[in-house]
Amino acid sequence: xxxxxxxxxLAAAAKRAVALRRDLHRHPELGLTEFRTASLVxxxxxxxGLSVRLGREVMDSASRVGLPDEGELDRCYRRAEEEGAPxxxxxxxxxxxxxxxxxxAGSRPGPVVALRVDMDALPINEDTTQAHLPARxxxxxxxxxxxxxCGHDVHTALGLGAAEVLSGLRDRLKGxxxxxxxxxxxxxxxxxxxxxxxxxxxxDRFVAIHVGTGVxxxxxxxxxxxxxxxxxxxxxxRGRAAHAGGQPDQGRNALLAASEAVQALYGxxxxxAGRSRVNVGTLAAGSGRNVIxxxxxxxxxxxxxxxxxxxxxxxxxxxxxRGAAAMQEVEVEIKTVGRTTTALSDPALARLIAExxxxxxxIGICTDxxxxxxxxxxxxxxxxxxxxxxxxxxxxxxxxxxxxHHTPRFDIxxxxxxxxxxxxxxxxxxxxxx
Length: 434
Ligand SMILES: [Zn+2]
Prior knowledge:
single chain; alpha/beta; Aminopeptidase; binds zinc ion
């Protein structure tokens, strides 16, 4: 039987987690610019007595893709300084190395257990009307165009809350617990560099979490399966500008090539073997009304139920982009800027997680939910742990949402934070039993 966390320890951690979540929600940071968030995480882990590794120690710099340009990295770094990022930890994160791992060694032997949470926000303008609770209660995003619209602020707060509870139980803790704080989950960019740095190479039991995702408040899923493999692409079309009235024939229209590509991308044939997706999320083109557009930039993603289907969608998308460029005699440059894969939760591990959750009164537990269309780069950690003989699971902490994920009024129910911390603490304690 594993240790039960005492109520006063849980209550103190929950109170701090709600306050921290609100602070993070107010200061959202996009993937690989989580300078403030990650330095706060590192400082708190150190304060709790965990051994902390961060930056290049836990991220293979060369494996990063989709890195913001230097100007953006600098701007976000300075903003973090102005907004009170702990100076002792900030420099190690410079240049977009915004990952942190805290390790808590128990006092008795046992397996190495890891919890992975993510920290990044989304490029969304948060709703600022009184209908939206974060606006009403004064913690709406202070960074225009950036919003925690997927609950990763909650994940970070839950992860630190669980670390607080477990550090308070250190003298009774078995094994070792690693708290993995990952940057840039959105866009599928943060996990691979951490996997390459060997962060989970010693892990026997691994759990990644998400809040919400359609699971109701006061219920949790011990294992979710069915994440789609995804590939994120940037396409830049380069043509030739010309006077639209005087010499239209001298121009090479990048905007036209891009817009033809959009139509054809959505027309890619479905794959017989399983689910697939394609989306053009952004398209920016041209410079003026009376100019043949010489540049167009698109952000695209494709997904598939398996790696093979995602690769099929990628091949077809590349053919479409090249074909559209050829039609208009413009150049196209295609860059892969992020990826996620697929992974299955281990049923044996899911049973242990369900058992831990079942000890919390009033919480419903399911063991094998299916993910309808989401993608997650935690799947790379899961695969790595499983390849090395360990077990992995992807769990969901339910919460009734004010509005769907990735929308301007997204919000969770904060009453799910206290039991969420207890769920994680009990899970990590249970998984530490040999
Ligand atoms: Zn998310």
